[in-house]
Protein 1
Amino acid sequence: QVQLVESGGGLVQPGGSLRLSCAAAGFTFSTYAMSWYRQAPGKERELVARITSTGGSIIYADSVKGRFTISRDNAKSTVYLQMNSLKPEDTAVYYCKAVSMTYWGQGTQVTVSS
């Protein structure tokens, strides 16, 4: 059974940092590209970042380029999202997803506020 468990969210002041983790199980993690998405209240879910199975290719949404870094550890079946210079508009529930799969985790809430 596919499982995706996000963690690391919380309340942070503008300019602060958080590191999100997504632990995966139930599939061969090392063969799948992985993505982070986010959904703010009243908005559609949007792609934040994507990393290929080997980590050799990465894309970011324009809104997070230069501030967020996606990475993965295939030995731990975990994908990460390092978020720096956070802004109030980054407030959302963050989800990870394996590309081409339809499973979603429960998400982790990130709130950026003073």
Note: The mean pLDDT is 97.
Protein 2
Amino acid sequence: QLQLVESGGGLVQPGGSLRLSCAASGITLDDYAIGWFRQAPGKEREGVSCISSSGISSSGGSTKYADSVKGRFTISRDNAKNTVYLQMNSLKLEDTAVYYCAADGTGWGTLGPYDYDYWGQGTQVTVSS
């Protein structure tokens, strides 16, 4: 059974760091583009970052970031662990949200949530002083 499970969320002070993990079972994550999305209360789900399947790009997975997180967040894969990570540094109050990972079977990866086929249940990230 295909399953995506996020972990690593929590409470952190502004300027702090967290690393989110997206672990997969039932699929090989590297066959998919993986996106990270977030949804704050009362707001629409927004794309944070994505990484394409390694088969799409000869240099390995290509990455994209929302402007709001460029230079602060880094997405990466560990194919041996079938896991994708989102390293979040210099966290701000406005980064508070539930963070979701999702898998896109085309392998290309976009920041649009409607392009994704499978979703995890989410992990809460709260940035507060």
Note: The chain has a mean pLDDT of 94.
